[in-house]
Automatic annotation (TrEMBL):
PANTHER family registered for this protein in UniProt: 2-AMINO-5-FORMYLAMINO-6-RIBOSYLAMINOPYRIMIDIN-4(3H)-ONE 5'-MONOPHOSPHATE DEFORMYLASE, 3-DEHYDRO-SCYLLO-INOSOSE HYDROLASE
SUPFAM superfamilies: Creatininase
Keyword Zinc found: yes
Lineage: Bacteria, Pseudomonadati, Pseudomonadota, Betaproteobacteria, Burkholderiales
Native species: Comamonas flocculans
Cofactors (names): Zn(2+)
Protein's UniProt name: Creatininase family protein
Family in the record: Belongs to the creatininase superfamily.
InterPro entries: Creatininase-like_sf, Creatininase/forma_Hydrolase
Amino acid sequence: MPYPSRYWQALGTRDFAAARDSGLAAQTLAVLPLAALEQHGPHLPLGVDAVLAQGVLDAALAQLPPTLALLVLPAQNVGLSTEHLSYPGTLSLPPATLLALWDALGEAVARAGVRRLLLFNSHGGNVAPMDIAARSLRQRLGLQVWRCSWPDLPLPAPVRALFSEEEWRFGIHGGAVETSMMLHLAPETVRMAQARHWRSSSQDRAERCPIAGNGKSVRLGWMIEDYNPSGAVGDASAASADKGRQLVQAAGQALAQLMVELQGLPLPAGT
């Protein structure tokens, strides 16, 4: 491999100096995993998003060509989770603090001579600040920055068909998808005896309101209890470890392909 390890913290300062001086750093893709520590209903632990991000990332790294110049930064497992603050145990950073943290990490990437950065995310509340951070780092430091949330990765039709389209759309928190992945990645943390089918209020709006309920024309500024008082939505009772295994592997394969594509793209002029 171009580096002794895929992980940023495993390298020494001489490794980074050599990579900068040889031009390897400028060809490297840095990956910043972003997650959250927040409630996921009565059946799942707070660390769901962190576990899923690492699981998909591990699956991707196992499928990368050994010659690919890629480094994974330390995972940032506390994100913007204000929509879950009504539930005990949830951790969340203020938006300004979160943006300052990601910006500082981007500065460190740039100082190391790395010009490409992928923000890899597993939590919906991080999407809006990721957009702000990506543009800020591009404008201020000249970094080429992308953002990707694992649920947006393309999946083969047989894998997507493991869950209904209704579950993909409405089971966004602690439903069959996340519970299946947790049954595969961390089964000892899942309390399936507490798993239920929690209907989302967004399903009611979708049935009643062609515009307010279509999920595209207008967005609700929501707290999770607006969807279901349990703090979860979706059919967690339909989860299985085998579904989770297939989903993690497929998402990892798509992420690995994305990493190869991004590392091979030309840098913008002036970077």
